[in-house]
Every structure is written in structure tokens, then in C-alpha cells.
Please model this.
Amino acid sequence: MAPRKMHKKGFALEMIFSALGYFLCVFVIVVLLNISGCILNKEAVSSSVSGRADTAASLRAEVQLAAYMRTQIPSSTELFAKLDWLKGKHDKEFAFANGFDPEAAVKFLDKHPEVYSGKDYAGFIRSIYAYYLETGDKDGVKSTFNAVTAVLFFRSKGDKQIKDGHLYYLFPVGVDFGVLDLELCDLGYKVYDLCAGYLPQQLAYQGRTAVKAESWVPLADNRMARVELLYYPEFEAWLQGP
Amino acid sequence: MNKSGSGMTGEEMVYWLVKVVFTVLVAVLTVSLIRAFIMTTVEVGPLESALLSNVPYFSENGFSAVDPVTGRVYIGMVDPALVSTATAEDIFKADKPVIIGRFVLNQTAVDYALHPETGKVGCSEPGVASTDSERYRLWQPIAMAAGRGEGGKAAYPEARYVATVDGKGAIMQTVFISSN
Model:
């Protein structure tokens, strides 16, 4: 009988020490994971995921700005036809801030084809800078930049509630030449030498957070122009359907 | 051991049974603890779709124009001829079981206003690429009915401006739908 009792006592002790050992290991693991920040609550993880989504939105904005820079300015015929259409829209459904004046732009472009002919958008910015340095024509530069940017990058969303069936908008683009101070416009939080943008009232509340993309254009006098695009991911997601 | 020296006594068998139960309990608790760290109910759809929507523009086998000599990928410059379901299926095949995507290349607003008869930018199958056409057809109405982030399917749409190889601009409308 005696050996059996010993066996029982030994077994019970083994169980107790195993349990203690197990919980000690768990405790150590939990402490280590806490120290390394691996134990997070749902809110913290969600917030982290959302932060990464913002980074992805920023990447998307950068790609779009790169696409802007590589877009060719159309031929004069096509450009003027587009400006004509935009002028009609301007009168009816929307108004651009910052002095959008398509008629002045048409006159300017007709007179100065060297500013845009055969150039992409980056080349156009470079040319318009050179033109401004040469002539100091603030109004011509301002209205032309505005109109060409609108013609190229104007967007729309089908909306049955609107008479025309479309809601139009233009994500703000700003250009800063660095040395010049044209003081032509601002995009809400910052003044730029040149800028263009139109966010309709119906959508203003949707675009709460802007993601900023930045690009640089080398200028003729070895300076760099900074081009910024303000992109609103929430706003854009709201506009599209599955 | 029993008296004859073979097998266990009933008492020993009970002890072993308790020991096995305890071991199983410890194993289950350990696995549960690890699972508790790994498995959370965090919604990763927005992040996943935001990242995946960038893939075709950065991939050498995606929608962007590629220099045949240097292999350089022109980010932001789409070759409409490459926008096809075959391309999308190829680059997204690893993610197919969990999320589906659809890309549609459209004219810009002004181009469409002037030439509405050519609404889609010229591609073989006009500007549409899907990672899984069949599943998109099934999932899209569910995502549409449930609204974003609700119900059985969640849709994550976006639209972006892209330049095309001919120097013109286009709008790429993208939607990823994931299963909740």
C-alpha cells in the first residue's frame, strides 16, 4: 500500500508543479508580448490599419500627379474645343475660384503656341515660367494655367439629382516657383504662385482630409518648381460605386 | 503494473486519464492564447484594396507602359492595350480567393463630353479588366445592396487619373470587393 500512496503524492505534486510551470510560462510570454507591443486592442490595430491605408492613398495621389505631368497638351484645335465646352459649363453649373477665364486663356494660347505646343504638362509649367520671367504678364499666366489644368484634369460623376446628370470637380493643383511671389491664389491652407481647383458644394463635406502629392519640375534657370496635388480619397470613394 | 506484470491497474489508468486531460487542457489553453493574439476582428479590406489597387501600375506585368529595352515601368502612364482581364488575373492570382477587383478605363469628363460615342478608352475588350469576372458578377449586386462595409460583401471603390501612352488622359475606375 505504501508505494501506491507515494505514487499518488508524487503525481499530485507533479500536477501542481506542471500547472505552476505552465502559468509561469504564460505570464512570462504575456509580459514579453506586452513589452514588444504585440498585444494590442482592436482600436489600436484598426487605427494602425487605417494609418497604412492613408499611406496607400498617398501613393495613389503620387501616381496621379505623375500621370498629370506626363499628359500631353492637346493640339490647338482640340484644346480650344475643350475650352469652349468648359466655358459653357462655367456659365451653367459651376464656377471656378481663382479667376478662371477661358476667353482670356484662348486669346493667350492663340498668341503664344510656344507655351504649350508639343509639350506635356510638366513642359507647359516650365514654359509658362519662362514666359512670365520674360514678360511679367501675371494675368495671362494665371488664366492660362487655370484653363489648361481644368481642360486636362476636369472630372465628373454621374448624378441623377443634377439637371445635367453630372457633378463636376477638379482636384486642386498648386505650383510654387520658389523665387517668384505671384500671390495669385491659395488652396485653403497655403498660397501658391499658380493654382487651379474646383470642389463643388455638394461634395465639400465629403472631402475632409486631403492627401498631398508633390512633384518637381526643373526650370530653365536651373531652379525647380514644386507642383502639388490635393487628393481626397474619401471624396473619391464616395463618388464611385461597386 | 498489475500483479501479473502486464498492463496497468485500474487506479493507474485513472491517474493517466487525469494526466492526459490535464495535458490536453494545457495544449488547448496554449493554442487559444496564441490564436487570441493572431486572430482579431479588424477590418483589413480598406487597406488590402488600397494596396492592391496600386499593384497594376507598379508591376512590370501590369497596366503601365514598360520600356522594352531598359525594362523601366512608367508609373502613371497606362498602356490601354495591357488593360485586360488576362493581365489582371495574372497579377492578382495569389489574392483571388479573398478579394476580387475590376478596373474600367474611361475617357476624361471633357473628352467624353465632346466624343461620347467612344466612352471607353480604346482597348481590345474596351478598357475592362477583372481579376475574376464570374465572381464579380455574383458579388457586385450583394456589395451594392449591402452598402460599403456592411453585409456579406464590402466594396472599396476608387477612381484615379492616368495618362495613356498616346499622351492623353483617362480615368481608371477601380473597385475591390471583399467577403466580410
About this structure: Chain A has a mean pLDDT of 78. Chain A touches chain B through 55 residues (CB under 8 Å).
